[in-house]
Amino acid sequence: MAKFLLALVVAYVGWLIWRGPRRARQSPSTPHAARRAEPAGMQEARAVLGLDADADEAAIRAAHRRLIIAVHPDRGGSADLTRRINAARDALLQRPDLS
Fold first, then answer.
1. Torsion angle, CA of 4/79/65/93, rounded to 10 degrees?
2. 51-60: b or e for each residue (b if 16 or more CB lie within 10 Å)?
């Protein structure tokens, strides 16, 4: 039963990553340039972790921990998903790429 639940969580997280970022509603008064001020890599990183644009460091760390627990390779998850989640966290926390 536990393996089934883990497989279900891994499949759900994979689906969330596959479907891409959600489109946030923008107020009509927001200038067009301000809507696209964030680089595409940051938008993708936020989508991987399932975060809004106004997420702080604590929210980033909490989302990372929640997803890593679900998809870690030691628990039967995917190494590729783990790599993508870690890269998203590093990008949002602006850590240098060590690879």
1. -150
2. beeebeeeeb
What is the reported pLDDT for 33? 47
What DSSP letter does each residue of the chain carry, written as one string?
-HHHHHHHHHHHHHHHHHH-PPPPP--TTS-HHHHT-S-HHHHHHHHHHT--TT--HHHHHHHHHHHHHHH-GGGT--HHHHHHHHHHHHHHTTPPP--
pLDDT in tens, 12-24: 888 778 776 665 5
Only one residue has tokens 């639940």, namely 5
Greatest distance between any 2 Cα atoms in the chain: 51
